[in-house]
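--- STAGE predict ---
source: upstream dedup step, 1 unique chain passed
mode: sequence only
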Amino acid sequence: MYIETRPIYKLSQYILTITYKILFGLKVLGRENVPLSGPFILASNHQSWFDPPMIGAGCPREIHYAAKKELFNIIILNRIIKYYNSIPIRRKGFERQALVKLGKVLDSGNGMIIFPEGHRFLDEKLHPPKAGVGMLAIRHRVPIIPVYVNGSARLFFQVFKRRLTLKYGKAITPEEISKFIVSGKKQHKALTDKVMRHIAETGGVEPPESCTNA
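--- STAGE serialize ---
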């Protein structure tokens, strides 16, 4: 079901954004690149546990999050992450049901965050992605907005450095994605590699070596 931005959710976005700005000097760029209607995928690099709430707070829409299943076993946290549209995902192995759940979010006209690299990397470099984001985008033909987070790997140093940046890049459109709509895992990987190149371009950094071929 499509979700309009709820008042408490919107208030949370405002509070989080102001907190990141005051404490760490957060700069949010490119919000105008996020579509104000229809489904979409935010595909971001991942440096810190703080990335998902920061990306969600900066986004002009209410969005969904993929969260590891174990978090739903913590009673208090369970209620919080459910309110903020978290979807339980098994981190290891292939889970077809997870793709079905994520697909339903997109088919309902909602947006979501996906981290193509799969987990956090503290070295501030981009790493080879998993093919899930390409698979979802090809199946559901939704725009992908590349997102680059800079400075969150050592977040508390930003109290002094003030270089925390969140940038939403130009969308990879459904028309571009349609070029990859051919059966086979190679196309999923090819599109995901393209996503990683766009994330790198958004952040002004080098893409993973495995994704450098056009």
